[in-house]
């Protein structure tokens, strides 16, 4: 009888207790083995290179390089990498950025253990896995028109209460250009005014006030 090799897992999370808990929970599975842990996004490619995991479980919010950026960096060097995002955050923009970066799965930390194990096995098998809440957020994201990088910058400043003249000065562009960007933002977010646009941007995770 042929015994298949265990799923080799790299756990990436900035909280030691989370990494320890995940590792302990997964290592009791006969078909899984946590071969390495990482606490920052910057160290992921090196850990992957050294330990050659078959699945990477990645937190989204990491200090410095975030999970989506770390996934993109990893995929650039190792296009065969299979990344499963495990996060407390589920805004449509978070999910979209992670999947666009190359993640093959996205689940929330609130899931039951059996679903986590199922997600790992599905991603390892080369399939995609999204829990129901995340899948609906991703579908919602694809129904919207994307903001450009400049429009996101303008929206960020709008959310902080800056007027068109202040935004123009900060970005070194003409005030009429700012007005045009604001108009496009309102249209794309289907917002009637600046306050509604800022609220929508924050709710969808397009911008933050951090």
Structure overview:
The structure is a single chain. The chain is of the alpha/beta class. Helix 4 packs across helix 6 and helix 7 packs across helix 9 (175-188). Helix 5 links the parallel strand 5 (105-108) and strand 6 (129-130). The chain has helices at 16-27, 44-51, 67-77, 92-101, 113-124, 132-142, 149-159, 164-171, 175-188, 194-203; strands spanning 7-12, 32-38, 55-58, 83-87, 105-108, 129-130. It folds into two domains: 7-142, Response regulator (Rossmann fold), CATH 3.40.50.2300; 149-203, Orthogonal Bundle (Arc Repressor Mutant, subunit A), CATH 1.10.10. The mean pLDDT is 89. A six-stranded parallel β-sheet has the order 2-1-3-4-5-6, with helices on both faces. It has ten helices and six strands; from the N terminus they run E-H-E-H-E-H-E-H-E-H-E-H-H-H-H-H.
Helix content: 40-55%
What is the CATH topology classification name of the largest domain? Rossmann fold
Please tell me what the overall shape is.
Answer: elongated
The main sheet orders its strands as 2-1-3-4-5-6
| CATH top-level class of the largest domain | Alpha Beta
Distance between the termini: 55 Å
Number of domains: 2
Low-confidence stretches: none
Q: List the helices and strands in order.
A: EHEHEHEHEHEHHHHH
Strand content: 5-15%
CATH architecture of the largest domain: 3-Layer(aba) Sandwich
| CA radius of gyration | 20 Å
* Average of the residue pLDDT scores: 89
Let me know the number of strands. Answer: 6
Count of helical segments? 10
Q: CATH superfamily of the largest domain, called what?
A: Response regulator
Largest sheet: 6 strands, parallel
SSE-based structural type: alpha/beta
